[in-house]
Design brief:
By secondary structure, this protein is mainly alpha-helical. The chain contains 18 helices and 2 strands.
Length: 430
């Protein structure tokens, strides 16, 4: 960063700070909320992003890039998505907390994507620094998760202030203490699992695309892969395991599909059928009942998680049909908990549609489609390939959970997507 001018240095430093610390947002917010106002502590990322927006706009204007970027279809759709949120805040009445919290949850990763996209275009050399910061954060986070899953007490986070009133230090599968679900440095087991999916997808992509460089650091990387697998396993996140499988298939297909002979596809099909048959044959075992089906035969929770998902899905679909224009910003998810009508929607797409209507969902899908298509076009780059595959995995998780409502996951993935896409942006090319 020595070659950067002072203003670019400041903007990049703020974005790198958010990118590096957001993985530890949960423990930091819980700990410091004991001494400082909770609302400010939880909103530190959003405050920093708002402050850096005018600086990045100025830098783009100074570099004669603002007008050109304004013609970028992706940024135009993003602008429409943000404008829709602002209009809904003005037109549909929700309380002040809902509006502020809803805007933060819905737009922080979109704004972060634009800011990182712009700063990498302005200073392409920052790509390496963003990846280094992300790698260090991943190493620390996954190391702690692996320790929590093995040698540390499962409730170690209680010493930072974790509790039933803040964040549970750990969870269990269907109230069965034989299956402890760890949080790591995240808000819960599911975000931890989703983060492991992103990390493992990037490592696999890097290995396949940059083998020589990978082999120079093979032992360190292998150790952190082990940590990520331990964290994923100890999260007992079914959605994350499914997403990882999808992500691996996507990467292997894009890298080897032209070179795989037909007989090997038959072998893979036989292996998949064997695994499925084995799972069916062991459906009455303790592991399958608890981990896969989340059905504790010895009691468990009074509310079945599978029934909860189905009920949430049914209610979400009903609300979207009844309110095609949306029910207002902050009307779903955690932003709605401090209202008269709290509403938890366990589906990313229904979550967006509930707040912003069919138009908002359509714009969101177009944003994701453009990002993923551009990542696919640059898939020769290991970063683009890994982010593309993990993005497909996150979309799968989104069918079961509002995965992007978690700031750590959404900011990390959209930040990586911005770095990957901006790395291939040609300033002089139309």
């Amino acid at each position: 960063m020595k070659s950067l001018d002072r203003l670019t240095f400041v903007a990049a430093s703020v974005l790198l700070l958010v990118f590096g610390l957001v993985v530890f947002h949960a423990p930091l917010s819980v700990f410091f909320s004991q001494f400082l106002p909770e609302s400010i502590i939880k909103a530190w990322k959003e405050i920093l992003l708002i402050l850096v927006v005018p600086l990045v706009v100025f830098l783009l204007q100074r570099a004669d890039l603002l007008k050109k970027l304004s013609r970028d279809l992706l940024l135009q759709v993003i602008a429409a998505y943000i404008l829709l949120h602002i209009l809904l805040v003005l037109l549909i009445d929700t309380n002040q907390y809902q509006k502020l919290a809803g805007l933060a949850i819905d737009l922080r990763y979109i704004v972060f994507f634009v800011l990182v996209y712009a700063i990498i275009i302005l200073a392409p050399s920052l790509r390496a620094l963003f990846l280094k910061v992300g790698a260090v954060a991943a190493g620390l986070s996954l190391s702690f998760a692996a320790l929590q899953a093995t040698v540390l007490p499962h409730d170690i986070l209680k010493y930072l202030g974790y509790s039933k009133d803040t964040i549970e230090p750990y969870l269990t599968v269907d109230k069965n203490n034989d299956y402890i679900r760890i949080n790591g440095t995240f808000r819960g087991p599911n975000p931890l699992g989703a983060y492991a999916v992103i990390f493992l997808s990037l490592v696999l992509s890097f290995f396949l695309k940059r083998k020589q460089t990978f082999m120079k650091h093979k032992w360190q990387t292998a150790l952190f892969v082990l940590f990520a697998l331990l964290a994923l396993w100890a999260s007992y996140s079914r959605s994350a395991l499914l997403a990882l499988g999808v992500s691996i298939v996507v990467i292997l297909s894009l890298v080897f599909v032209k070179n795989i002979k037909l007989r090997y596809w038959f072998v893979l099909l036989i292996i998949a059928a064997t695994l499925a048959a084995s799972a069916i044959s062991m459906r009455d075992s303790s592991f399958i009942q608890n981990v896969v089906l989340h059905n504790n035969p010895n009691g468990g929770s009074s509310v079945d998680s599978n029934d909860g998902h189905i009920t949430s899905l049914e209610n979400g679909v009903e609300q979207v049909i009844l309110h095609p224009y949306g029910s207002g910003i902050g009307s779903a998810g955690s932003a709605s908990l401090k209202s008269d009508y709290p509403n938890i929607v366990e589906n990313q797409y229904l979550f967006i549609a509930h707040e912003t209507g069919w138009l908002g969902l359509g714009l969101f899908i177009v944003i994701c489609e453009i990002i993923l298509w551009r990542l696919y076009q640059t898939r020769r780059d290991w970063l683009s390939l890994g982010v593309f595959a993990s993005g497909i995995g996150l979309l799968v998780i989104g069918l079961l959970l509002p995965v992007l409502a978690d700031d750590s996951i959404s900011l990390i993935w959209f930040g990586l997507a911005a770095v990957a896409l901006a790395s291939h942006y040609k300033v002089g090319k139309k």
